[in-house]
Each structure stands twice: as C-alpha cells, then as structure tokens.
Amino acid sequence: MPVATLPGYDCHYLFEDFGKSTTIMLGNSLGCDFRMWDDNIPFLSAHYNILRFDKRGHGGSTYTQNEDGLSIADLAGDVLNLIDYLNKGELNYFPLNGRNLVFCGLSISGLIGQWLGIHHPERFSKLVLCSTAAKIGTKDSWQQRIETVRYNGIKSISHDTLKRWLTPGFIERYPEKALQVLTTLENTQPDAYIACCKAIAATDFRAQAAGIKLPTLIVSADMDKVTTNEDAAFLNTRIPNSEHRTLNALHLCNMEFPRKFPELITDFTE
Q1: How far is CA 46 from the centre of its chain?
Q2: What is the arrangement of strands in the sheet containing 23-27, beginning at the earlier edge strand?
Q3: What is the pLDDT of residue 65?
Q4: pLDDT digit string (tens) for 156-199?
Q5: Among residues 54, 27, 62, 37, which one has the least CA distance to residue 180?
Q6: Domain range 3-269, CATH architecture
Q7: Which listed residue, 21, 38, 82, 230, has the most CB atoms within 10 A of its CB?
C-alpha cells in the first residue's frame, strides 16, 4: 500500500481511481483503519473515486509522540496535507478540490470533517458526518479511558468497545469482520490512541457548527449511546444546509449497512 511522507508522520493511504468525476475521502473511527470501509467500496465505486487513509498511529501510519500532543486541527491538517501531496504528482488527471471532493468522516473523523467545514470549506464540495457529534462524550469519560489504556493497555477496553461498535447479531453473523475490527483496535499504537482521546476530549464545536456552510449529510445510528440521534439532530439544527438520516445500528453503522450507507451518501451528493 502507498505511504505518503507528510509533516510529522508517514501516512498509509489508498487512492482508487474508478474513472469518476468526483472523489470521496473516507475518514475512520478511533482505533480503526481504512479496512472498516471495505464492504462499502463496491457500492461507492459506482459513483466515486475513493481515497482512504489511516490516522497517525493507526493501521499502517506512523506516530511519533511529542510534548504538544494532537488536536483535531492537527488531524484535519493531515487530511489537507495528504490532498496536497496527491495533487502535487500522484494524481495524473485532475486535482482534488472543492468542485470534486467529498469528505466523509465517522466518529473522530466526523470531528475532523466539522473542523474542515468550518475552516476550509473551499477545499470540499460536500460533507458527510457519521456517528459523531459537535462534542463527543465528556472530559471525565475520556480521562477515565485514557487512564485505563495507559495503565492496562488497549486490550483492557477492546472487547467492551467492540460491543459498543457492532450489534450482537452482526458479530454472530460475521465473526471474521468483528475479529478484524477487534484486532485493529488492539494493534493501534497506545500513545496515538491516547493522543486522539485527548483531542476528542478537548473539542467542542457546539458554538461553531453554524459556521459550516457546505451541504452536509449527517448520519446517526439508533442504538449508538455515545454519538446519539440527539447529537446528530443538534448538528442538523445548527448546520444551515444539512440533512439527517438514521440507521438501526451501533457506532460502526457503515459496516452494519454496507449497501444502505453508501445509498444515503449517493442520494445526497448526486
């Protein structure tokens, strides 16, 4: 798989050219890598070229700890740097820009999408924000998770996390997919995971969401207890040009609905 040397880290990414005029960029949940979108690709590829990437310390991307840690702005800057890297030579026919690039982010990547929509709307044509919120969780809940991972390791939270991400029915029907998600989480670099937890805990876009002027699709999952339908409805009331759709799933709703999820996106973007 290709690796882009970007400021601060090496980014593992995959650009798939399906000969379409529009590219969709897919951002992963915390503790996941870009394989979480695998089952969506056959349906998305009928409409878009697809750019997937791993955050710092996730999947095949590197992470070097620094004293300043990470912020959502840093992670959003990584997205912009990857686009610039590709536009400088990896793409041979047209640049990725505000006319032909959709950003779709789930969970922490939904926060990244909000930052991009607030600060750099000119770089994208539309946003898709999935299983996310203007503010995710509380500082206390994130601090508790950080301390658990710091002292007991990611495996101490992995099985409970999987139960929040995927329904029992999905895990029973597709044990190999659930195992892949679990293994990816457990292989995430702990320092990077903690840094991302801190970034989420420090982020609150409730007062800024109204500044997102891009057409925005908000997708939430009925059974998600962390990023709830109510959180999505809040974003829908604040973002002027937005629509809200729901799926009967837990957090990784794209995996639970491999075809319906892409259909929501294509119905919105085309």
Answers
A1: 21
A2: 3-6, 9-16, 49-53, 23-27, 101-106, 126-130, 216-221, 242-247
A3: 84
A4: 999 999 999 999 999 999 999 999 999 999 999 999 999 999 99
A5: 37
A6: 3-Layer(aba) Sandwich (3.40)
A7: 82
Taking residue 148's Cβ as centre, other Cβ atoms within 10 Å add up to 14
* 99, two tokens: 């006319």
Q: Give the H or E element holding residue 244.
A: strand 242-247
- Is 70 exposed, middle or buried, given 0-12, 13-18 or 19+ CB atoms closer than 10 A? buried
Rounded Cα gap, residues 22 and 103, in angstroms: 11
Is residue 188 within 8 Å of residue 222, measured between CB atoms? Answer: no
138, exposed or middle or buried, with CB in 10 Å at 0-12, 13-18, 19+? exposed
Q: How many helices (H) and strands (E) does the chain have?
A: 11, 8
Q: How confident is the model at residue 95 (pLDDT cuts 50, 70, 90)?
A: confident
Three-state DSSP at 262 gives helix
CB 81 within 8 A of CB 5: no
Say which residues have a Cβ less than 8 Å from residue 20's Cβ, sequence separation at least 6: 47, 48, 49
Nearest to 251 by CA among 109, 72, 118, 79: 109
Q: Which sign, positive or negative, has the C-alpha torsion 12, 75, 217, 123?
A: negative
3-state secondary structure 142-196: HHHHHHHHHHHCCHHHHHHHHHHHCCHHHHHHCHHHHHHHHHHHHHCCHHHHHHH
Determine phi and psi for 232, rounding to 5 degrees. Answer: -65, -40
31: DSSP letter: T
Cα separation of 97 and 51, whole Å? 13
